[in-house]
Amino acid sequence: MTEPLGGNLSRLRQLNTLAVVHALRRQSPLTLTEVAKAANLSRPATEEVLRDLEAQGWVAQVDPVAGSMGRPARRYRFRADAGHVLGVDIGGHTVRAIVADLDGELRHSERRSVSVAAGRAERLRVVDKVIAECLAGAGLTGADLWATTVATTGFVDADGRVVLSVGLPEWTGVHLGEHVSGRVSGPVLVENDCRLAALAETWRGVARYAEHVVYLLAGLRTGAGLVIDGRLHRGFARAAGEIGALPEMGWIRAQEHLRGWSGAPAGTDPDEVVALVFAAARDGDRGALAAVRRYVRDLSIGASALVLALDPQLVVLGGGFSRSADVLLEPFHRELEKRCVRTPEVLPSALGDDAVALGAVKHALDHLEQHIFDPGNGLAAPEPPQRP
Amino acid sequence: MTEPLGGNLSRLRQLNTLAVVHALRRQSPLTLTEVAKAANLSRPATEEVLRDLEAQGWVAQVDPVAGSMGRPARRYRFRADAGHVLGVDIGGHTVRAIVADLDGELRHSERRSVSVAAGRAERLRVVDKVIAECLAGAGLTGADLWATTVATTGFVDADGRVVLSVGLPEWTGVHLGEHVSGRVSGPVLVENDCRLAALAETWRGVARYAEHVVYLLAGLRTGAGLVIDGRLHRGFARAAGEIGALPEMGWIRAQEHLRGWSGAPAGTDPDEVVALVFAAARDGDRGALAAVRRYVRDLSIGASALVLALDPQLVVLGGGFSRSADVLLEPFHRELEKRCVRTPEVLPSALGDDAVALGAVKHALDHLEQHIFDPGNGLAAPEPPQRP
């Protein structure tokens, strides 16, 4: 067996390094013996890799446990605080931001209201403020960020430009990637908000176990995010999930059944009426129950089209209306059963208003996994990756 | 650098073996030097691997080229004829079968008509006959097969049982996997026919370059097969693609606009009327053109729902009606443009009636790739794989 190894050794060394990093990211702190076992490497090889990783700043030694017997074994941890990511959710009424470390541990979050009627410049000013406050709250600056994801309504191109936003017309054409890039280091990714909410559900929400998920944003607008084979589905030109644009799907008119409810006091803002309908339906008001039924019926046509097309394991009911899942879920499930060949499980989101910003954080982390912690790439000393 | 390699060497040897096999499958015949270069291995390592592969029956030496100068270099080829796969398409009117070798080279095909009104036993007898004739035509027996895929209309479970067939009601409940397993060696896979036609298009059809494809079966029934991220999309319980079951999608009534055309001679079988409508539309008959327009409109509602949901690169118009693409394509594209955020390319299938059987062959080959030619599995001497 005198197999000439050629270029295979440095490749092997790279794989060993990543095996150690992955072991420490799964569980920390670990002793040398534990790392070697978890990474499936010899003790001397593990020691060499750990020495390099410590010198580079990826790994730190942990202080010995007080009171332990004999000479305590040295223990190692992955330095998740070597870098940070930022998730920003730009909604119609609110802008949110969350900072997390490389392990997805949340460090700080901020939010600010913005009028749905705000112009583009005003909304961008609020975005800047929320980002600055969120970084300051975490004790960081933009230079500490390794990746940022910005979530927005509408159809976004690969460059980070909003191609079309029906919900916020003044938003169409804004180059969010460019705007935010001026404020942070590392790559800035821009992504559709429904898609990121779906991703958040597979990360920290009710869809953690599912590979095929239809996420419904049920609120003052209706949207969808798709997870297929465990991955966010974007489509060929990032326009996937826009099934609601087809009038036959019922999503354009669905919320009007609630906004137009006649039981609210005259002069109530239609957006406010919705909460009143749900409350009245909860109390058994017949008119309110009928309005909810009509809403659910229209919501379920588009939802059934997605279920029939994709056969997901799970439908997640998210968005603002998911707070009224007690009123919505049962009739919604019944409508799906009427229409579908196989009815999937339906669960309400438990992430509340943070779903989109959480998804943005996860999306930024996934980008780093792919570009930094992947066997295809070497592992250099920790620093913000270059912009693509 | 005294890295202990432990279990890594035999793994390396396995990878080297597969690198040689992949090199020879990409291009054959090759000299030793060419194989070493294509597999990115040293000459001695390549020689050792080739010797083993030849002894096992995976690789054969090719006779030296007549008339070449000097002592001709030995050349090697992958033995694609070490095993074969079978694809069977059980349709309403016809049963087809194709045998191919491990490189997907087609060896023989057979077809037989069957009445759409045939009972289950009669249809299965035709299936048996076509399989036997196809194998005989290729000079093989069932024992030579390494994998078989059977295509059928309807929703099929993982065991190979038809859970629901709307097109062929007597077919619901038939255990196709079990039936065909008695006639061939190796695993028998059963799969929905629209899905396999979509797969065929990505293999030898118009969708070769596309990662996201919506395939439409446009014929006496309307169906869909989805390719997402380069892979056939089945969904959680293999029920994906059934969007046509939703009445709002227009697919249930679509073909009735053609079958019900009033321009055909009284008493014509409605299924026969369709060809007459297309011919009359081609000649500019107003009534026929209107019927085609109504059909296209309904076809495009469901198609738009899929396009809006998935944002494919390409829509393939397949099925029996795709022979009239000259009449259908332009109005169909126009309807999509009206409804979609981004209109993909639309191409008619060029595979004709063989699409489903070809897809079945490809599906069986993919199964072998995954279970035999994958780095995760060793490579034993060529013989039919065990049933799962």
TrEMBL record, chains A, B:
InterPro entries: ATPase_NBD, ROK, Tscrpt_reg_IclR_N, WH-like_DNA-bd_sf, WH_DNA-bd_sf. GO terms for biological process: regulation of DNA-templated transcription. GO terms for molecular function: DNA binding. Residues 17-62 form the HTH iclR-type domain. Pfam families: HTH_IclR, ROK. Belongs to the ROK (NagC/XylR) family. PANTHER family: BIFUNCTIONAL UDP-N-ACETYLGLUCOSAMINE 2-EPIMERASE_N-ACETYLMANNOSAMINE KINASE, ROK (REPRESSOR, ORF, KINASE) FAMILY. This is Transcriptional regulator. It comes from Virgisporangium aliadipatigenens.
